[in-house]
Amino acid sequence: MKNSIQHLVRENIQKLTPYSSARDEFGGSADIFLDANENPYGNYNRYPDPYQRELKKVLGELWNIPTENLFIGNGSDEIIDLLFRIFCTPHKDKALTFSPTYGMYKVSAQINAVELIEEPLTEDFQIDIEKLKERLSQEPTIKLIFICSPNNPTGNNIDHIEQICSFFKGIVVVDEAYIDFSSKDSWANKIEKFSNLLVSRTLSKAYAMASLRLGIAVTSKEIINWLNKVKPPYNISQVNQEIAIKILKDKESFNSKKQEILNQKKKIENELFKLSYIEKVYPSEANFILIKVKDADFIYNCLMEKGIIIRSRNKQISNTLRITVGTAKENEKLLKAMQIL
Ligand SMILES: *Cc1c(COP(=O)(O)O)cnc(C)c1O
Questions:
Q1: Are 296 and 314 in contact (CB under 8 A)?
Q2: Among 6, 142, 211, 329, which one is most buried in terms of CB atoms within 10 A?
Q3: Ligand 1 pocket member 148 (CB < 6 A)
Q4: Region 174-198: what's the mean pLDDT?
């Protein structure tokens, strides 16, 4: 699958001469920088590293991935948007995902005037491979497939990803926002094998940095080059890069918080099983639990009146609610409230 990406790229992007910043044109060290119209005074006066080299070094070591295979976006949402802009010609090319899933693929597709085909997941929230193959043969303009695994809001890992990377001729995006909570390994270590595979990770969930807006694409050098060409030159602020490096270096804190969330999840699940009005507690590989009840709106409103906000997923899967795992104290209050509805 080497050098198989370029023909998938939009014509206008193939022809694009990217913006060349002052830092692109002179990347060395010097005593005096008078090349970027920066203000010579202050603590935040210089433009940040456009390629976030220090932060990539830390992430690369943490995940055991060469830095040349990393791209950092202003949240995963920026990466999703860039992929549409690189690969999908508006009103012509299409993308595909499996519903119910994360809502941003649809919003980003619509913003970019790209049709998103939504294949339903099976009863047990898996991909029907035969149906997918049939669909792909009918729709030759599909350029991107989004697979969210562990899936939001269902919470399960999705199978057959390797198979899809083999037979699909476009780009396979595996959104691993919740992978750090999962018992499965990341697909990031398969990028050597599949140059059309892009694994999207984030520091927003297990790494507890949602406010910093840092999403990471792990993919072939070829796709990284296209992402770098199209991104805004200084998409990640220097302050955010520095804070993320500091937090990432504290591995002990990461592991203990993650373990605490997993312990709390088990505890909530055990208590929810005991409640008679809950019809189903779906198995979760993430930091949330999806439940099915008799009347989701009623439960949602009761909890809201007690000051506890959960997420209704009623529109995606009837009478379901998604509960994020909080602190021990928050979870205790939630369970108490749910026990006396
Ligand atoms: C929360 C979440 C993200 C994170 O997006 P960021 O922009 O990185 O905060 C990405 N994908 C899914 C499926 C999510 O649930």
A1: yes
A2: 142
A3: yes
A4: 97
Task: Judge whether residue 2 has pLDDT over 50.
Answer: no
Going by C-alpha positions, the residue among 178, 219, 204, 214 that lies closest to residue 87 is 219
Shortest-distance Cα residue to atom 14 of ligand 1: 177
Contact 109, 116 (CB under 8 A): yes
Q: What is the mean pLDDT of residues 137-144?
A: 97
How far apart are the C-alpha atoms of 292 and 272, rounded to whole Å?
11
According to the model, what pLDDT value does residue 27 have? 84
> What confidence tens digit (pLDDT) does each residue in 44-81 have?
999 999 999 999 999 999 999 999 999 999 999 999 99
- Spatial distance between the Cα atoms of 85 and 169, rounded to a whole number of angstroms: 18
CA angle at 179 for the pair 53 and 108, rounded to the nearest 5°? 75
Q: How far is the CA of 199 from the centre of ligand 1 (A)?
A: 12
Is pTM, for the whole model, over 0.85?
Answer: yes
Angstrom distance (rounded) from CA 175 to CA 274 = 33
Return all residues near 337 (Cβ < 8 A) that are at least 6 apart.
302, 303, 306, 308
The pLDDT tens digits of the residues spanning 228-259 come to 999 999 999 999 999 999 999 999 999 999 99
DSSP-derived secondary structure for 103-162: THHHHHHHHTT-EEEEEEP-TTS---HHHHHHHHHH-TTEEEEEEESSPTTT-PPP--HH
Is ligand 1 within 6 A of the CB of residue 73? Answer: no
Best residue among 204, 211, 288 to mutate for probing ligand 1, ranked by most atoms within 8 Å of CB: 204
Mean pLDDT over the full length of the chain? 96
What confidence tens digit (pLDDT) does each residue in 301-328 have?
999 999 999 999 999 999 999 999 999 9
End-to-end CA distance of the chain: 56
Shortest-distance Cα residue to atom 1 of ligand 1: 177
For residue 95, the CA-to-ligand 1 centroid distance in Å is: 18
Helix (H) or strand (E) holding 18: none
Ligand 1 touching residue 75 (CB < 6 A): yes
Probe ligand 1: pick from 76, 175, 216, max atoms within 8 Å of CB?
Answer: 76
